[in-house]
Amino acid sequence: MKLVFLVDECVSNQTVIFLEKLGCNVTKVQNIGLEGKEDEIILKYAQERNLTLVTYDRGFGNIRKYPPSTHSGIIIIKVYNLTSLENCHEVLEKLLEKEKRFKETLFVVDEKKYRKREKP
Predict the structure, then answer these.
(1) How, if at all, do strands 105-109 and 114-118 pair?
(2) Which of 24, 71, 78, 103 could be joined to 3 by an S-S link, Cβ 3.0–4.6 Å?
């Protein structure tokens, strides 16, 4: 099964290229006219199309505002610099190899590990 993601505008092109090299189908927010739109609009677009959102925006980690049971998956990547980005990509690749279900799950990726929070 090919993984399909909506990539937020804050995500670097390096991450987009990385996901594409892994064989993922990637749609960038900028390419569908949602650049600059509110987070709720971007997430609604992803939900309506059953897409997992990939973002650097930690605001999407607010499970009271964005409960995992209400979306098709969110992956937050915590990046600080170029070295951090490379390490996060390694962890992200492990996540994509191991995890088979993204719907109703929040993933937070950092330089060393990932955490997941599923719907209660």
Answers:
(1) antiparallel
(2) 24
Please report, to the nearest 10 degrees, the dihedral formed by the alpha carbons of residues 54, 6, 28, 12 taken in order.
Answer: 10
Query: CA–CA separation, 17 vs 118, rounded Å?
Result: 27
Give the model's pLDDT for residue 1.
55
* pTM (2 d.p.): 0.95
Q: CA-based Rg of the chain, rounded to a whole angstrom? A: 13
Cα four-point dihedral sign 35, 38, 42, 48: negative
Non-local (6+) Cβ contacts of 8 within 8 A are: 29, 42, 53, 54, 55, 56, 57
- CA dist 86 and 12 (Å) reads 12
